Amino acid sequence: MSSPNNFNIISVGNELLNGHTLNTNLHILCKSIENIGGFVSRAYIVKDDFAEISFALNNSISDDSFWIIFSGGLGPTYDDITIEAISKSLDLPLKINNDALDMIKAYYDKLLKTKIISNYNLTTTRKKMALFPIGGIPLKNNIGTAPGMLLSNSNKKIICLPGVPVEMQDILNCEVIPLIKSKIIKKFKKEIIVSLNGFTESDISPILELLNFKYPDVYIKSHPKGFNEGISEIQLVISSVTNSLSNSSDRVNEVLNLWNEMIKKN
Amino acid sequence: MSSPNNFNIISVGNELLNGHTLNTNLHILCKSIENIGGFVSRAYIVKDDFAEISFALNNSISDDSFWIIFSGGLGPTYDDITIEAISKSLDLPLKINNDALDMIKAYYDKLLKTKIISNYNLTTTRKKMALFPIGGIPLKNNIGTAPGMLLSNSNKKIICLPGVPVEMQDILNCEVIPLIKSKIIKKFKKEIIVSLNGFTESDISPILELLNFKYPDVYIKSHPKGFNEGISEIQLVISSVTNSLSNSSDRVNEVLNLWNEMIKKN
Prior knowledge:
Strand content of chain A: 25-35%
Number of domains of chain A: 2
Structural class of chain A: alpha/beta
Number of helices of chain A: 9
CATH architecture of the largest domain in chain A: 3-Layer(aba) Sandwich
Oligomer: homodimer
């Protein structure tokens, strides 16, 4: 069953697969979602291609995610096809969304007013950014031209964000996070990171396994950081998400205490 | 049909989905593959979970990729399950691979010799890193403990690399790139990046569409970079991959010349 705390993310763009662009958007999205108690259960990175976008969308619809977040492919160029691909995939015809068109006009009016441009026409290319499938709701972009989009379909919330990082983050923070918070089952996260010197991952693995068995609800993970002046470094993350901050803290502290006890004996 | 130039990448690790870790491995893999004439057609990011790894593997096997590259989940801890998940998914029993075991022993012997550790046992946890499905071939890791793995299955090459970036890159450069180069249909890439000031993406979109229509084999993509002191900045990438460097250069130059002509008229 799909939980309102469960997300899939679909990053769209050839530049993410041909090595041009490091996918910082996915990282920011995951961090922001985790921080408000949600969790990303899977991510796809696909090309600017109808079949690829449709593949990731259909798989996300059929799994247990409630939110499907796209980033990339909302701009005015010919290869920005995310919204058109969603419309085709869900068989929802495209239509000019007047609210989206007003946002686009307001953006160019602002450029005109601040003398960044001296004139503009609402060309087909520009109007393209207001073409939404029936039911699509625009999400205001305070930084760039293309509005984001929210679409409710198959009991899921589909959200489209631009690929330009500053624009993605603006819509995420101003529009999407408040929306998620209104639906999500409220969770609180407590996390501590312990630095360990002089142990290899193999040394601590049996302790981690035991802790994980005893506390399956707590996230306990080691990250090897290599050697510093011949001494092995490991980062240990202990993290708990529960319905209250004090419960989360209690769980983390329990694990930490047991960890300290066991590592002393090692 | 699967082409030897076609790759899928599967990044495994909860830390990539909970916002802890930026997926630089995927970026490095994509860049390295593109640079030798291959292309990554899709990427998945999945949790440390049997069903999730199996989902991505099965989809990759059924699509047109020839190479399936995993990164992450090869270490000694209980949640490092990539190879076990592949073995279950393909119904290939796990067995200690003696070559892999020798590599692991050699690694700990080195730590012993350089006095980083004072003794070691080949514990179950350490031996786990040598458990390979039948047919798996170890790929030497010069930096850390866990060897990578190469497995030929269903006319595909499955490659497993560690998640620690320096280890991933070591095996990629020393073992995987030479292997790929021996199978790939040799291609040469020429790319130029043009910086544009004073245009919005909407302004240049019709030109890009026309160029793309005229040169479907050349990659032509604009990346808006925002405003610098009130002036819009765009990066235009023109890139061609053909069977010779001179052909690639010719295609890029043709597009660049036509681009310069058309932008002057704008």
